[in-house]
Amino acid sequence: MDQIDKSTSLWSDALRRLCRNRLALFGAVFLLLILLLSAFAPWLTPYEYFEQDLVLGAIGPCREHWFGTDTLGRDLFTRVSYGGRISLLVGACATSVSLTIGVLWGTISGYSGGHVDRVMMRVVDIMYALPFTIFVILLMVCFDDVEVRWIDPQLFTLLLLFVAIGAVEWLTMARIVRGQVLTLKQQAFIEAAVTLGLSRRRIILRHLVPNVLGPIIVYTTLTIPSVMLLEAFLSFLGLGVQPPMSSWGLLINEGADAMEEYPWMLIFPGLFLSAALFSLNFLGDGLRDALDPKSAREQ
Predict the structure, then answer these.
(1) What's the CA gap between 56 and 69, in Å, rounded?
(2) Which member of 55, 196, 238, 253 has the greatest number of CB atoms within 10 A?
(3) Which residues neighbour 61 within 8 Å (Cβ) at sequence distance 6 or greater?
């Protein structure tokens, strides 16, 4: 009797296919290195991100300062390492907020159909008509005046960034998910689940959402870069990360003002931001291919 192959789960098959994608592995490894660099920044550099040396001023890359220093004499390698914490944290947390809202809104709208679908999508259309950046700025300004004694002001600013950006970045995700759900709910397995009497909540969470993971992951990798760029814009306007804290976007804005005299102030933060965005795209494409059911049948 032929030996029966052991059954494997969707996730184990997806992981195996992902490991075959070299670009996706490169993106994952590089992102891991950036995370480790940011997490262990205090042990990798002898300087503090706020430490100034006005006498030293701005100098180019050297043995003591690998990435050089800025106009205030602060070590740029240290500020890039600490800045990665803020940029990646804002990108991940704000995207998580928009992902949660968008997926639930789009799934409920697409599966419910009828008047519920029309009302929910008209809300999306109305919010699309609003200028996103101005809406985020209004949220930041309104909540920034609230005094919170039990939390650090800088941490409260970061929390506002997460909520404000996430609250306006979910609209496209909702439309993408709704379109996928409209197709999926006509499939036989959804009709079978309805016939078996499964609850609407279980059908949505156990059958619909797992089957739209591919588009969700792909758009998530596009949302994180846009969130990081929006954070940079808000920081430039004075509504985001405030000095002496740093993020890659804030460092790029500072470097752009001094790029003619001190080009390294723009080059190094720009390289890290660009490399992180490329890695996210490579990893997202690899995850999309790994989770694609059609790709699984071809293996």
Answers:
(1) 9
(2) 253
(3) 67, 68, 264
CA distance 184 to 204: 11
Q: Name the DSSP letter for residue 47.
A: S
Query: Between 3.40.50.1820, 1.10.3720.10, 1.10.1740.110, 3.10.20.30, what CATH number should domain 21-298 receive?
Result: 1.10.3720.10
Task: Give the residue from 68, 71, 67 showing the smallest Cα distance to 54.
Answer: 71
Tell me: the pLDDT tens digits for 21-74?
Answer: 788 888 888 889 998 988 888 888 888 888 887 767 788 888 888 898 888 888
- What's the CA dihedral at 101, 103, 109, 112 to 10 degrees? -120
Q: Which residues pair with 243 in a beta bridge?
A: none
Q: In angstroms, rounded to a whole number, what is the distance separating the alpha carbons of residues 245 and 155?
A: 11
Q: Measured in whole angstroms, how far is the alpha carbon of residue 29 from the centre of its chain?
A: 17
The candidate with the shortest Cα–Cα distance to 228, out of 289, 145, 179, 169, is 169
Is 2's pLDDT higher than 50?
A: no
Please tell me the distance from the alpha carbon of residue 139 to that of residue 223, in angstroms, as a whole number.
Answer: 20
SS3 label, residue 63: coil
Which amino acid appears at position 291 of this protein?
Answer: L
Is there a contact between 66 and 78 (Cβ–Cβ < 8 Å)?
A: no
Q: Phi then psi for 69, rounded to 5 degrees?
A: -130, 165
pTM of the entire predicted model: 0.77
Q: What are the residue ranges spanned by the domains of the chain?
A: 21-298
